[in-house]
Amino acid sequence: MQLQFTEEQLAVRDAARDFAQNDLLPGVIERDTNQEFPAEQVKKMGELGFLGMMVDPKYNGGGMDTISYVLAMEEISKVDASASVIMSVNNSLVCWGLEKYGSEEQKEKYLKPLASGEIIGAFCLSEPEAGSDATSQRTTAEDKGDYYLLNGTKNWITNGGNASVYLVMAQTNPELGHKGINCLIVEKGMDGFTVGKKEDKLGIRGSDTHSLMFQDVKVPKENRIGEDGFGFKFAMSTLDGGRIGIASQALGIASGAYELSMKYAKERKAFGKEIAKHQAIQFKIADMATTINAARWMCLEAAYQKDQGQNYARAAAMAKLYASQVAMDVTVEAVQVHGGYGYVKEYHVERLMRDAKITQIYEGTSEIQKIVIARDVLK
Ligand code: CAA
C-alpha cells in the first residue's frame, strides 16, 4: 500500500478544499436552515469533475482513482455534507454501476451526461417497507415484451427531486425472490412517474430526499441494466462502493468538527488561559485526532483494495461502520468543546453533529454493516 499520495491525488484534494472553502462555505448555514438544494454549487462540482471522478474519460469522467475520491469527499464533507452526499450518490451509486454493468448504448445516453455533471442521478432501492431488508421489493416491473410496466413507491431517495435519471430496483418475478429483481433506468418525465414529498430532515438538509411514485410507467427493455434478474446483485455490488463514499463523508464531517474545535480551543480563554491548555479539552482533542486518523486509514484501505481490483466489500463496510461512529463521537465532543457557542448555528458544529447521524443510517445502517462484516469474516 502506498504511504505517500501522488501529485495528482494531492492536486485533487487541494482543488476540493478550495472549492469547499470558496463555493460551499458561503451560505452553507442558510441552505441548511432553508433546506435549499445547492444547485449552483452542484453545477460547479460537475465543471470541476467531481461528479464523475472515477469514470473513464471516454464517457466524460475524470479517470481518477478511488483514493482521490476519498480525499475529495473528505474535503467537501468537512464543509457541506449535503453537497457531498449529492456527489457520493452520483459517483458511487449511479455512475459506477452504469459504467460497470451498463450497455454501450446506456453509457452513451446516460453515463456521459451524468459523469460530466450536466445532469445528476438517483439510486432507488428503499421502499416504505423495504429498507434494510432490501430483497423485499414491492415495486413491480412486469415484463410486457418490449417494455416493463413499473408500479410502486420508493422512499428516502437522495437527489429525488433534482435528478434526471433514476436507477430503480423492482421485482419482475416474485417467485424467484431476489433473483427476480431488475434494475431499470427511468427518466424524469416518463408518463406515470411522479416525484413525491420532500422530507424535512434532521441533517443534510441541503440535499433533497423524496419519495417517488410509479404508476404504469412504461420502461423500454433496453433500459434494464444487465441480465434479467441481475438487479439485486447490481444494487448490492454498487452499495459496496457507495459505502466507501459515505465512510469518507463521515470522515470529512468528523475532520471538519475537529478542525473547528482545534481553532476554537486555541482562541477561547477560560480560567486565565486558552482552553486548549486545559487537560479536559486536550483529552477530547487527542481522542478526536486518534479516531479520525484510524477512520482515514480505513477509508484509504477500502479505496486501495478497490483500485487494486480486490474484493473490498468487507473493508468498505468496516470503514463505514467505524467512520460513522467516529463522526458521531467527534461532532458531539466538538459541540462540548465549543460550550454554548457549539449549540448555535453560527459555529457550524451543531450542523455537523446533525449531519453525522445519517452516516449511521443510509447505504446500510451500522447493524447492516456488521452483518456484511460478520458474514465475510465467518465464511
Ligand atoms: N455484491 C454482489 N452480490 C451480493 C452482495 C454483494 N456485495 N451481497 C450479497 N450478494 C448476493 C448474494 O451472493 C446472494 O446471491 P446468491 O443467492 O446468488 O448467492 C444475493 O445477493 C442475496 O444475498 P443475501 O442472501 O446475503 O441477502 P440478504 O437478504 O441476507 O441481505 C443484506 C443482505 C446485506 C442485509 C442486504 O439486504 C443489504 O445490504 N441491506 C441494506 C440495503 C441498503 O444498504 N440500503 C440503502 C439504500 S441506498 C441509500 O441509502 C442511498 C442514498 O440515498 C444515500
TrEMBL record:
<dbReference type="InterPro" id="IPR013786">
    <property type="entry name" value="AcylCoA_DH/ox_N"/>
</dbReference>
<dbReference type="InterPro" id="IPR006091">
    <property type="entry name" value="Acyl-CoA_Oxase/DH_mid-dom"/>
</dbReference>
<feature type="domain" description="Acyl-CoA dehydrogenase/oxidase C-terminal">
    <location>
        <begin position="231"/>
        <end position="377"/>
    </location>
</feature>
<dbReference type="InterPro" id="IPR006089">
    <property type="entry name" value="Acyl-CoA_DH_CS"/>
</dbReference>
<protein>
    <submittedName>
        <fullName>Acyl-CoA dehydrogenase</fullName>
    </submittedName>
</protein>
<dbReference type="Pfam" id="PF02771">
    <property type="entry name" value="Acyl-CoA_dh_N"/>
</dbReference>
<dbReference type="Pfam" id="PF00441">
    <property type="entry name" value="Acyl-CoA_dh_1"/>
</dbReference>
<dbReference type="InterPro" id="IPR009100">
    <property type="entry name" value="AcylCoA_DH/oxidase_NM_dom_sf"/>
</dbReference>
<keyword id="KW-0285">Flavoprotein</keyword>
<feature type="domain" description="Acyl-CoA oxidase/dehydrogenase middle">
    <location>
        <begin position="122"/>
        <end position="217"/>
    </location>
</feature>
<dbReference type="InterPro" id="IPR009075">
    <property type="entry name" value="AcylCo_DH/oxidase_C"/>
</dbReference>
<keyword id="KW-0560">Oxidoreductase</keyword>
<dbReference type="InterPro" id="IPR036250">
    <property type="entry name" value="AcylCo_DH-like_C"/>
</dbReference>
<dbReference type="Pfam" id="PF02770">
    <property type="entry name" value="Acyl-CoA_dh_M"/>
</dbReference>
<dbReference type="InterPro" id="IPR046373">
    <property type="entry name" value="Acyl-CoA_Oxase/DH_mid-dom_sf"/>
</dbReference>
<dbReference type="InterPro" id="IPR037069">
    <property type="entry name" value="AcylCoA_DH/ox_N_sf"/>
</dbReference>
<keyword id="KW-0274">FAD</keyword>
<feature type="domain" description="Acyl-CoA dehydrogenase/oxidase N-terminal">
    <location>
        <begin position="6"/>
        <end position="118"/>
    </location>
</feature>
<comment type="similarity">
    <text>Belongs to the acyl-CoA dehydrogenase family.</text>
</comment>
